[in-house]
Design brief:
alpha/beta; 7-stranded mixed beta sheet; globular
């Protein structure tokens, strides 16, 4: 990886991208950072020297894209749709965090460790879509179980951290905790409601069928990433007062009988996962233990009694939404492309 530009560098995902790139030895001289005018001029400490955050105006971005090899777009879909073609025209590989390109059949949608093979035919420049965070965490846990048989149905209930709503929501949750402790009115500018000591529907639009956008993303993206257009997928997605790391209760139905003991062995050996499944100690995955970790924690592995003929498994997965659920997966995509080009 030579030169990198991050658009949306001061947001929650952008900050995590910077931390991961620092761990990989990408120093300040190889980075250009962009954000809205509110953050322009801010200095960000990074190995090799601090970096000045630039205002995301088109002239400066075109100059940065001409210099860059990889562009991470950590902004909204409107920004991505405008900037991605400009970056591609400048011969960049673009890894996009928004939903702008996830439904484009010509754009790879990748969870590293699940469907890396779709990158085999990728010849940059071009755009690669980073899937939704809840999809990434769910499929990281589910995909290794395909060794047991063909998947027939997935039912997923997600308990999503405030980090998925962005850096401002994280700040507001902390502010609500302080206000609650001091007996003051809770700030609700970003969340629109009390978040602390509460669980509420995922903060995305609900369609005419009663499905919120997060649930629809998990359904559509899972089918595409697993290359199973006929797969039955249902989900319920809610926000919980956890700072970061999403938790997901997953029920998987197979086309034949499966053995929970074999499933446990498979998951314990799968790269990118850590088995946390000790009933005798009541030790199972918890978001506080996944925070800041690259691995997705999996546990509570058992037979699903609601599926006949022993064809069902239930499990619980927890992953850091800002790492494997977002920034880490994007960096892993860039690493995979670079390794294929050697």
């Amino acid at each position: 990886m030579k030169h990198v530009t991050i658009v949306g560098a001061t947001g929650a995902v952008g900050a995590e991208l910077l931390a991961i790139l620092a761990d990989r030895g990408v120093d300040a001289s190889r980075l250009r950072l962009f954000a809205s005018s509110r953050s322009a001029g801010r200095r960000v400490d990074h190995p090799g020297g601090s970096i000045v955050v630039e205002s995301a105006d088109e002239t400066a971005l075109r100059d940065a894209f001409a210099w860059s090899d990889v562009v991470y777009l950590a902004a909204n879909g409107r920004v991505s749709r405008r900037l991605a073609p400009i970056a591609v025209a400048a011969s960049c590989t673009v890894i996009d965090h928004s939903s702008a390109f996830r439904g484009d059949p010509g754009c790879p949608l990748v969870v590293c460790g699940v469907n890396d093979e779709v990158l085999d035919g990728f010849e940059g420049p071009g755009v690669i879509a980073n899937p939704n965070c809840s999809t990434i965490i769910a499929l990281a846990a589910i995909a290794p179980l395909r060794r047991l048989g063909r998947l027939v149905r997935l039912t997923v209930c997600t308990y999503q951290a405030i980090s998925g709503a962005g850096a401002e929501a994280m700040v507001e949750l902390e502010a609500q905790a302080r206000a609650w402790a001091s007996g003051h009115a809770l700030p609700t500018t970003r969340l629109g409601r009390q978040g602390i000591f509460n669980v509420f529907n995922h903060d995305s639009e609900v369609d005419s069928a009663g499905v919120n956008l997060e649930e629809r993303k998990l359904e559509i993206e899972s089918r595409r990433i697993l290359a199973q257009p006929e797969l039955r997928v249902s989900s319920t997605c809610v926000r919980v007062p956890v700072m970061r790391a999403h938790s997901e209760a997953i029920h998987v139905e197979f086309d034949g009988p499966v053995d929970p003991t074999e499933a446990r062995t498979i998951l314990s050996e799968a790269p990118g996962l850590e088995l946390v499944d000790a009933p005798e100690d009541r030790r199972f995955p918890e978001p506080i233990h996944a925070t800041g970790r690259d691995d997705v924690l999996v546990g509570r592995i058992r037979r699903d009694p609601g599926v006949p003929d022993g064809r069902g498994l239930a499990l619980f997965a927890v992953g850091d939404q800002l790492r494997k659920g977002a920034a880490l997966n994007a960096v892993q995509i860039a690493d995979a492309i670079e390794s294929r080009g050697r």
